[in-house]
């Protein structure tokens, strides 16, 4: 059995046109990564029929960039992926301010694809709105 059979395929995110003129599709690890990015980029309560879907990290949009905010970001990402993406096992989540210091939090997620036991990583940039000095 191929990993494709276990992981699946779906519409590419963002939605686009494929090479034959139809909806562009993603499969294998690419589809899994896109599903994780979709979870992380969706604020909770955004989807009317599924208000719990998404990640609570968006509550930190105006939070100061400090240790408490970074710890909360790690917790929210771990919680959302553990709940909404059963095809992976989260190994580690690490949030750090980006080097440019413009209120960007770099969130590194290490995970294992359960069906293939492949260890992979994903970096999600979360953009905050820095407070006024």
Summary tags:
single chain, 133 residues, Nuclear Transport Factor 2, Chain: A, three-stranded antiparallel β-sheet, two-stranded antiparallel ribbon, 3 helices, 28% helix
In a nutshell, what does this entry contain?
The protein is an alpha+beta fold and 133 residues long. Helices cover 28% and strands 27% of the residues.
Counting helices, strands and paired strands, the structural category is alpha+beta
Mean pLDDT: 85
Name of the top-level CATH class: Alpha Beta
Strand content: 25-35%
Number of strands: 5
Whole-angstrom Rg: 16 Å
Distance between the termini: 57 Å
Major sheet: 3 strands, antiparallel
Strand order of the largest sheet: 3-4-5
Secondary-structure element order, N to C: HEEHHEEE
DSSP helix fraction: 25-40%
Report the uncertain regions: none
The CATH architecture category equals: Roll
Number of helices: 3
CATH fold-type name: Nuclear Transport Factor 2, Chain: A
Shape: globular
Oligomer: single chain
Total individual domains: 1
Written description of the protein model:
It is built from 3 helices and 5 strands. By secondary structure, the chain is of the alpha+beta class. The protein has one domain: Nuclear Transport Factor 2, Chain: A (Roll), CATH 3.10.450. The strands form 2 sheets. The protein has a 3-stranded antiparallel beta sheet, with helices on one face. A two-stranded antiparallel sheet has the order 1-2.
């Amino acid at each position: 059995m191929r990993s494709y059979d276990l992981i699946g395929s779906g519409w590419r995110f963002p939605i686009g046109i494929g090479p034959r003129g139809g909806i562009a599709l993603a499969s294998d690890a690419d589809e899994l990564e896109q599903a994780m990015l979709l979870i992380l980029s969706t604020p909770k309560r955004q989807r009317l029929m599924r208000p719990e879907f998404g990640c609570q990290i968006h509550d930190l949009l105006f939070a100061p960039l400090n240790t408490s905010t970074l710890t909360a970001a790690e917790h929210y990402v771990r919680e959302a992926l553990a709940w909404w993406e059963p095809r992976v096992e989260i190994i580690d989540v690490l949030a750090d301010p980006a080097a440019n210091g413009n209120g960007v939090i770099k969130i590194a997620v290490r995970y294992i694809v359960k069906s293939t036991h492949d260890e992979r990583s994903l970096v999600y940039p979360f953009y905050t709105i820095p407070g006024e000095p």
